[in-house]
Every structure is written in structure tokens, then in C-alpha cells.
Specification:
Shape: elongated
Number of strands: 20
Strand order of the largest sheet: 3-1-10-9-8-7-4
Oligomer: single chain
Helix content: 25-40%
CATH class of the largest domain: Mainly Beta
Largest sheet: 7 strands, mixed
Length: about 450
């Protein structure tokens, strides 16, 4: 596989000869800057050195005073990337952190901001004081149980192969993979087949188009509690299928606007407000992280999936907002608040109407013929009525099913979750096959306005 499509064979050969000559006469030197040390490293960073020849602006940064910490991609790391020089420059800036951090300087987990600045959309650029005109996007740096450190962003992660290559203006850590640039929360959900149901629910007009609500607050930060298809299938209350109006408030409770809550920021308890201003609590217990309320809670089973101006945490249970109570009988109701002069009582839910009692019918043994004739006539007439009624119900059901098919696994039964279409896009400007979590990363370049919703 070609290292990079925009590099010609001759440029690689020339750079290799230059590097070989320099490597013979010099070794890594703490008095030399980051760029000179990369060139002097020789074959270990051959691909990176060749790439740097095409992006002089980034080379200028590596030669500047700094200091910087550079997570330099190895030769093998470049085999999974196919990008233009401009895109490569953005990617490398995302691997460059202001400040000099040796291995010993990193805590167990941290979220340093990189040199990659992602300008927000026009809606976020109106702040007069410049508070919303773009900021360095963070990466996750985490010490590994077996020793060493790893870095993560979104659905990609990398291990540090070589640490503490000190230069005059910083330090180099060589990594085995390249991190992808941060995507929006919706793009991150759509990138993995595990989140099909949640992505489609958030995008559905039938359920309030929560994806638009996420986009409105994305510039000021957002935390998403992500649900896999399996979790929705196994833990979502079955009553939702009977009352689809519950989907919006329940999934709104999994969206925390204007706050980016990383797992490392929760020492004991952290409270936040969800999209509908309801309280949600993060707690740490015996090293495990939980989120929820007095009604339901979930364990965070995969933390800190970095997104553009936000973070996703994957949880193992569907959370029910505190203002929704699902009774054992399967009837969702709004609970009455406790008596208090400061609380306005809400009207109790209306009781379900009673089923009509059957009317007793007496049979007479002296009118058997009349009874048999009446029964046959009733069967025929009732059959015609049932056929007509079935046709009307079937027609109405099909119409409703077309509107909701594939959006929620309980709408049409429990067996449709694996039959949902997979028309999702990566929306990245470059293709990326690096994934340590066995995610499927499609690489089509469809416009975001053509995101798949519902059935075709």
C-alpha cells in the first residue's frame, strides 16, 4: 500500500537518502529542535519526514520556540491514512500539544488541548469577545495498566511505542496509529453500527428531531450518554411501544447541553442538567462510574469518546427521567409531587376507562332451530364485519408502520433491530481504517442533509 497518494516515489527516495546521510553523521540531540530530531531519527520516522516536506507551515511550528509535546506517527501509522497535504497538516496539529510532557508528567488520565483549532459554524462565531471563535480540540491521554501511555479520540486510539525523545523545544512520543479528527456527536454515532437505533431516533422528525437540538448547543459543549442497539433492545421499557410520545423526553434525558463532563472530572459526585432542565447525577463507586437518578441508573461502560466540542459516554441502561414513572401495569404516568407549599401540584393522570361488562344471554331448549339459524347468520355476518374491520386496521397499521419503521425496536416487535438499513456516512474528508474497537467505518461522502431516516 502506498504511504501517501500525493507523494511521488522520487520524493521518498530523495528524502531517504538525505535522512540516511544525516543519520550517519548525527544522533538525536537535546540541543536540536523537534523537526531536526525527526529527520535525524532515520528510518523509524521515514514516512513522517517525507510528509513534513510537503507542509512547510507545520515544519515552522516544529522549529519554533515551543515547547510542544508531539505524538509522532510511526511509519506503519501512515499506512491507514489517505489524505491531502492540507488534511495531513490538520491531523498532525491534532497530535501536537502545547507544553513539554514526559511520561512521568502525565496523570492517570488527562484531556490536553491540541494545536488543532476547529472553527465553529457561523452560528457560534457571533460572540463579540471571541469566546466562541474556535478552540484547540482535546485528546485523551491515559496511562495504561501494563505501563506506558495511550491516546484516544472518538472511536480511534493509539499506543505510544517510544517515549521521551527529548528535543530543545519539546519532546517526541512515537505512536503506532493516527487519531482521526473530532467529529460531531451525530457523526460519531453514525460512524459505528452499534448506535444505529439511537442515531435514527435522534434524527427522526416523529420524535422531535433531537439531532437538531444537539447541533444548536454543540458550539458551547455537549455530553451525550450513548445507547447501543443491544442496550435499547434489552433495557428500554416495553411501554414505549404503546406510547411513542415517551421517546422524546426519555432520549432528551441522555443529552447534557453546555457541559463537557469527562470521566476523569468525576471524583465523587457531579450533577448536571439535561436538555429539558432535569437533574442528572454522575457518581463514582469503587472506581466505577455511574449516571442517573433515583429512578434509574446506568454504568458507563465506555468513557470519553471525544467529539467536536463534546464527549460521548456509552452506558448500559436506558435512563428514565425523574418526571416519568412507568407503573408495573405498564401504564406510563406522571408522579404526583410530594406535598409542599413551594411545589405546584400537577393534575393526577386520568384513570383508564373500564371495560364494558358482558351482557348475559339465556338459551332456550325449545327454540333450538331459531338459535342455530341465528348463530349461522351471526357467524356469516360477523365474518364479513371482521374482514372489513381487519382491512381498515391493516391499512392504518401499515401507514403508521411506514412512519416509524426502524426507528425504535419495540414499535414493530423485537426482531427488527438487526434488519435496520445501514445507510450511514463517515463525513470525514479522508478515509481512515484505524480502529481498535472493531467498529465498521464507512467511507462514503454523502452530504449531511441526506442522512438516512426511517425506511426507504
Amino acid at each position: 500500500m502506498m504511504i501517501l497518494k500525493f507523494l511521488t516515489k522520487i520524493s521518498v527516495i530523495i528524502f531517504f537518502l538525505q535522512t540516511l546521510l544525516i543519520s550517519i553523521i548525527t544522533a538525536q540531540d537535546v540541543t536540536k529542535n523537534l523537526y531536526d530530531n525527526i529527520v535525524a531519527d532515520g528510518p523509524q520516522l521515514l514516512a513522517l519526514g517525507a510528509v513534513l516536506n510537503t507542509i512547510p507551515k507545520f515544519v515552522t511550528t516544529l522549529k519554533s520556540v515551543g515547547p510542544y509535546t508531539f505524538f509522532a506517527p510511526s511509519n506503519n501509522a501512515f499506512e491507514s491514512i489517505n489524505a491531502t497535504p492540507d488534511e495531513i497538516e490538520q491531523i498532525l496539529n491534532y497530535h501536537l500539544i502545547p507544553g513539554k510532557f514526559l511520561l512521568k508528567d502525565f496523570p492517570s488520565i488527562s484531556y490536553p488541548k491540541s494545536m488543532f483549532v476547529m472553527a465553529p459554524p457561523a452560528t457560534g462565531a457571533k460572540e463579540a469577545k471571541g469566546a466562541n471563535v474556535g478552540t484547540g480540540q482535546p485528546i485523551v491521554v491515559e496511562k495504561l495498566p501494563a505501563g506506558g501511555i495511550g491516546i484516544r479520540s472518538g472511536l480511534t486510539s493509539a499506543n505510544v511505542l517510544v517515549v521521551d525523545q527529548v528535543a530543545s523545544n519539546g519532546v517526541i512520543h512515537i505512536v503506532d496509529k493516527i487519531l482521526e479528527l473530532p467529529k460531531t456527536p451525530m457523526q460519531t454515532l453514525l460512524q459505528s453500527d452499534r448506535f444505529k437505533s439511537m442515531a435514527k431516533i435522534l434524527q427522526s422528525e416523529n420524535y422531535g428531531n433531537l439531532a437538531d437540538e444537539i447541533a444548536k448547543v454543540n458550539d458551547v459543549g455537549v455530553t451525550i450518554l450513548a445507547l447501543t442497539d443491544e442496550v435499547i433492545f434489552n433495557s428500554a421499557p416495553k411501554e414505549i411501544a404503546k406510547n411513542l410520545s415517551l421517546i422524546n423526553p426519555i432520549f432528551s434525558y441522555h443529552i447534557i447541553p453546555k457541559q463537557i463532563i469527562y470521566s476523569g472530572s468525576v471524583e465523587n459526585v457531579v450533577t448536571a442538567k439535561t436538555l429539558k432542565d432535569e437533574i442528572i447525577t454522575f457518581t463514582r463507586d469503587n472506581g466505577e462510574l455511574y449516571v442517573g437518578n433515583a429512578i434509574t441508573k446506568a454504568k458507563i461502560i465506555q468513557a470519553d469518546l471525544i467529539t467536536y466540542n463534546g464527549v460521548l459516554h456509552v452506558i448500559n441502561n436506558v435512563l428514565i427521567p425523574p418526571n416519568i414513572q412507568i407503573t408495573p401495569e405498564g401504564n406510563p404516568t406522571v408522579p404526583l409531587p410530594s406535598p409542599s407549599p413551594s411545589v405546584i401540584s400537577t393534575k393526577p393522570p386520568s384513570s383508564p376507562s373500564e371495560s364494558p361488562k358482558p351482557i348475559p344471554v339465556e338459551n332456550s331448549s325449545s327454540n333450538v332451530g331459531i338459535i342455530v339459524a341465528s348463530a349461522l347468520g351471526g357467524i356469516v355476518g360477523g365474518g364479513l364485519i371482521m374482514i372489513g374491520g381487519f382491512f381498515l386496521i391493516y391499512k392504518k397499521y401499515i401507514k403508521k408502520a411506514k412512519n416509524n419503521q426502524g426507528l425504535f425496536p419495540y414499535t414493530l416487535g423485537h426482531n427488527n433491530i438487526n434488519s435496520q438499513p445501514s445507510h450511514y456516512s463517515n463525513y470525514s474528508n479522508y478515509s481512515h481504517t484505524n480502529s481498535n474497537d472493531n467498529y465498521s467505518v464507512p467511507t462514503t461522502n454523502r452530504d449531511i442533509r441526506s442522512l438516512y431516516i426511517g425506511s426507504e
